[in-house]
Amino acid sequence: MARQTSHVIVQPAAPGPNKPVRPRDPVASGERDAAHNRIASHNYFLLEKFEAGVALRGTEVKSIREGHANLKDSYGLIKDGEAFLLNVHIGPYSHGNIANHDATRTRKLLLHREEVRKLLSKTQIKGHTLIPTRLYFRNGRVKCELAVAKGKQDWDKRETEKRREAEIGRAHV
């Protein structure tokens, strides 16, 4: 406890030597994505992106911090005015017990009512769907970036690959 002497507050000295501050994990601090769906841009045209919170259990957040999240084959769904995230694989927490979470359970997305209505209207167009592109931390909370996406045909994928290779060739010259 600090003591006051003639209106000057004197802080007591910290006991023991000062410990060096360990740098924070880049995933937990929000500097790096916890999970990234790289195959999404290959299989879909990503038209518009939205940010949504994800309702998670404690062991799921800890597991995402450890890097055990996978967005491959996952998608979003709007049902009864609520948005859900399906097939996201979040592996079991390493220090969890019998009450650990189910790896591929359906998770609720936290969006404003107006955003849900907007997403519903965009996904009702034929061929459009919701695809999660990345999971990341913002201010200690897990966020999911959702993209309204339209599926690519095989010839679209080849065309995209040709354009990408041409850009790489121009960059090397």
Report what the structure shows:
The protein contains 4 helices and 11 strands. The protein has 173 residues and is an alpha+beta fold. It has one domain (27-155): Small Protein B, Chain: A. Strands 3-10-11-4-9-7-6 form a 7-stranded antiparallel beta sheet. It has a two-stranded antiparallel sheet with strand order 1-2. A two-stranded antiparallel sheet has the order 5-8. The N and C termini lie far apart (67 Å). The model has no long low-confidence stretch (mean pLDDT 85).
Question: What does this entry show, briefly?
Answer:
The protein is an alpha+beta fold.
Name the strands of the widest sheet in spatial order.
Answer: 3-10-11-4-9-7-6
Let me know the largest β-sheet. 7 strands, antiparallel
Order of helices and strands: EEEHEHEEEEEHEEH
What is the chains' assembly state?
single chain
Structural class: alpha+beta
Radius of gyration: 23 Å
